[in-house]
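Exercise 4. Each item below gives a protein and its sequence. For each, produce the structure-token representation.

Item: YjbE family integral membrane protein (Croceifilum oryzae).
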Amino acid sequence: MDFFTTEFLTALISIVIIDLVLAGDNAIVIGLAARNLPKEQQKTVIFWGTVGAVVMRVVATSAVVWLLKIPGLLLVGGVLLLWIAYKLLVDGKGHEIEAKKTVFQAIQTIIIADTVMGLDNVLAVAGVAHGNYLLVVLGLVISVPIIVWGSTLFLRLMDRFPWILYVGAGVVAWTAGGMLTGEKFMKPYFPAGSLLSYGVQVLAVLGVLAWGYLQNQKSKKESDGVQTS
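Answer:
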């Protein structure tokens, strides 16, 4: 993938969208971990907690990018990513993070929580990057400031405009479809850039969005039924 071509920029935009949708609540984790500290220490915790989380995210994503080159793992990753895209639509994320009383404990909590919560993000970004480590780093550099300083606003927007979440899930599902057809032993059946290959990606997107939408409608009806009874 050449730098700053249409393909490169499209992948970069996809990574930013994935980072925002899948990691949009990470600033809440930071706030919860640091909320019992004095305000002058909170800035220190936020800064170093974010730095540590970014370093861990880069290391983890780089490792996954390398692992996806092992035969068969790209296919497995694609299947997992389809499930992640679906769960993104139907699952609410909890924030059971204990507030810490020391700077070190708060920073440690932020790094560990971000690493654990960011596994879905890591897999999705690695799938989009196609072995390009510059894309991984650029995506994080662009996304992290938005996540840290603007994620509360972004979460409100997602609550107000649910279609934003569907766009994010669609991007993740499209990436998953690309991983499924990009596996080496699948390429003879799905040549890169072929209509068949794109067809699988379109089906992945439509399938995930339809499944998620129907499940949400079912949950809503069940919830309304409980409230009226």
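Check: Residues 37 and 102 are 7 Å apart (CA to CA).
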